[in-house]
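Retro notes (design track)

What went well: tokenization of the new backbones is finally stable.
What didn't: we kept losing track of which sequence belonged to which structure.
Fix going forward: every design gets posted as structure first, then sequence, in one message. First example under the new rule, 195 residues:
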């Protein structure tokens, strides 16, 4: 039987680690980081990666990460950020475990309006599907067994393998855009097992 860990919310210590994502450095982004702040933003991100890893090496601890595997305007899962490896790779202190969670329905919480997204559609039904607890070594092994159908792409990363597991949590993920495969980059016509 897996061990059930109960955390007393009164005693739990919650931390937030700021990260500037790669698209924010793109000058074509709607709100790009000014070039003169790139160095400072990068150092903030590196510091967060280090602090996140240190956080995971304490006992007990849990780190929630969304590493760009979520669905955006495309309606399908997007590429995962491979830098998650810097956080998740096992350390001398801990054998890091990964717990995959799939949230559905949250895209409808915000309604488009003239000023952007209202954020007032709070009665929309949402759900969370809980996946298996996976050891980092298991995810690493799965990554080695997979390859992209498009051979011009680089190797499948551990972050990609985690997203493949997440995409496989349920038979039919909720469609955001009709007839668009919600698995996006992780649909089986784009990624498959090596022969």
């Amino acid at each position: 039987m897996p061990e059930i860990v109960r955390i007393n919310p009164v005693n739990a210590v919650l931390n937030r680690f700021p990260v500037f994502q790669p698209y924010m450095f793109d000058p074509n982004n709607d709100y790009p980081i000014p070039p003169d702040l790139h160095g400072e933003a990068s150092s903030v991100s590196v510091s967060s990666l280090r602090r996140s890893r240190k956080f995971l090496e304490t006992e007990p601890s849990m780190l929630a990460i969304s590493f760009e595997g979520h669905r955006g305007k495309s309606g399908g899962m997007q590429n995962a950020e491979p830098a998650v490896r810097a956080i998740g790779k096992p350390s001398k202190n801990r054998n890091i475990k990964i717990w995959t969670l799939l949230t559905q329905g949250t895209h409808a919480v915000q309604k488009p309006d003239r000023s952007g997204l209202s954020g007032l559609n709070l009665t929309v039904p949402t759900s969370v599907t809980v996946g298996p607890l996976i050891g980092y070594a298991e995810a690493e092994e799965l990554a080695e067994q997979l390859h992209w159908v498009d051979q011009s792409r680089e190797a499948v990363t551990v972050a990609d393998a985690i997203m493949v597991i997440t995409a496989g949590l349920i038979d039919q993920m909720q469609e955001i855009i009709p007839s668009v495969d919600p698995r996006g980059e992780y649909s089986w016509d784009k990624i498959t097992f090596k022969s």
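Added context from the reviewer: The beta strands are 97-104, 112-113, 116-117, 127-135, 146-148, 191-193.
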